[in-house]
């Protein structure tokens, strides 16, 4: 049994991960701005505060905290929130762990599949490929740098570059369950995706096995906006309309944020599978049917 501290534990992935870790008899603690339950501890990165009790005798930290990328238009202020909610939070934890000389068994951090930049290309990106130069690429670069500083303390670091998470409740899939399902923009942009249980099992693998390094955390089955929309419409028994939502309209509604809807690349999951990870939901059809 490991003692695990989870940031972002009340979010979409955090809730499911906490349930699965608890089922496996791990002790889970959650950092929250408004703690309510016995396993929740207060923190406030804007004030540099983190309850010392949260990290007493802790074994692992799973860093999921971060403001939603697609929740609001990207104003200058919103961009700062997106970065700081990921980076400043990790820095606060690092300072606490360092000052108290806590030797963690591992620091496990989320990152984004847009690490390579929001672009549509024939290239299939591997973990060794260069970071993108756009906003999302730079967010991921700073996010991962904040995680990698734990190596200075001889703490193993695992980073999961995660695609769109498919879940029964909340997340991107809930927004896609419209009466009529259509592709976006050209429809040819790729959507890197993963079932929430496969994602959570990877976090568990990082706790229970020697699973360190950087990984593209996406399903091996590639889909474009067109093919994903068709599969979704069939799975939820909705009308599929092949006429795509125009790019100009998405840009008008979402501003710069529209780039994540209009562009996307394929990511290789070979490194994961070579590490012995077996996807439960390797095919989109099966993943959608389970939800």
**Number of beta-strand segments:** 14
> What's the order of the H and E elements?
EHEEEEHEEHEEHEEHEHEHHEHH
Q: How would you write the strand order of the largest sheet?
A: 4-3-2-1-5-6-8-12
- The end-to-end span amounts to 30 Å
> Spans of 5+ residues with little confidence (pLDDT < 50)?
none
The class by helix and strand makeup works out as: alpha/beta
Fraction in helix: 25-40%
**Which radius of gyration do the C-alpha atoms yield?**
19 Å
Report the principal-axis shape.
Answer: globular
The percent range for strand residues is: 15-25%
Main β-sheet description: 8 strands, mixed
Count up the helices: 10
Task: Name the average pLDDT.
Answer: 94
Q: Can you put this structure into words, describing what you see?
A:
By secondary structure, the protein is of the alpha/beta class. The chain is 35% helix and 19% strand. It is globular. The protein has an eight-stranded mixed beta sheet with strand order 4-3-2-1-5-6-8-12, with helices on both faces. The chain has a two-stranded parallel ribbon with strand order 7-14. Helix 2 (76-99) runs parallel beside helix 3 (135-148). Helix 1 links the parallel strand 1 and strand 2 (27-32). The mean pLDDT is 94. The chain contains ten helices and 14 strands.
Question: Can you give me a brief rundown of this structure?
Answer:
By secondary structure, the protein is of the alpha/beta class. 35% of the residues lie in helices and 19% in strands. The protein has an eight-stranded mixed sheet with strand order 4-3-2-1-5-6-8-12, with helices on both faces.
């Amino acid at each position: 049994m490991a003692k695990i501290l989870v940031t972002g534990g009340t979010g979409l992935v955090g809730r499911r991960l906490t349930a699965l870790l608890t089922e496996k008899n791990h002790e889970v603690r959650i950092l929250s701005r408004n703690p309510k339950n016995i396993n929740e501890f207060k923190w406030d990165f804007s004030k540099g505060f983190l309850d010392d009790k949260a990290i007493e005798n802790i074994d692992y930290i799973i860093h999921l905290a971060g403001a939603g990328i697609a929740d609001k238009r990207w104003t200058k202020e919103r961009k700062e929130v997106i970065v700081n909610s990921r980076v400043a939070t990790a820095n606060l934890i690092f300072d606490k762990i360092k000052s108290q000389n806590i030797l963690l068994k591992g620091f496990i951090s989320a990152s984004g599949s847009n690490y390579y930049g929001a672009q549509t290309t024939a290239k299939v990106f591997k973990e060794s490929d260069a970071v993108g130069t756009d906003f999302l690429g730079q967010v991921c670069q700073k996010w991962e740098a904040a995680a990698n500083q734990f190596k200075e303390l001889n703490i193993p670091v695992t980073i999961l570059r995660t695609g769109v998470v498919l879940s029964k409740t909340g997340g991107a899939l809930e927004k896609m369950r419209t009466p009529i399902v259509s592709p976006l923009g050209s429809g040819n942009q790729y959507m890197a995706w993963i079932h929430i249980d496969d994602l959570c099992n990877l976090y568990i693998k990082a706790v229970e096995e020697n699973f360190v390094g950087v990984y593209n955390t996406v399903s091996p089955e590639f889909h474009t906006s067109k093919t994903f929309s068709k599969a979704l419409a069939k799975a939820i028994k909705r009308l599929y309309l092949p006429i795509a939502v125009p790019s100009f309209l998405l840009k008008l509604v979402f501003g710069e944020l529209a780039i994540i809807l209009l562009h996307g690349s394929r990511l290789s999951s070979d490194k994961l599978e070579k590490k012995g990870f077996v996807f439960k939901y390797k095919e989109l059809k099966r993943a959608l049917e389970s939800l």
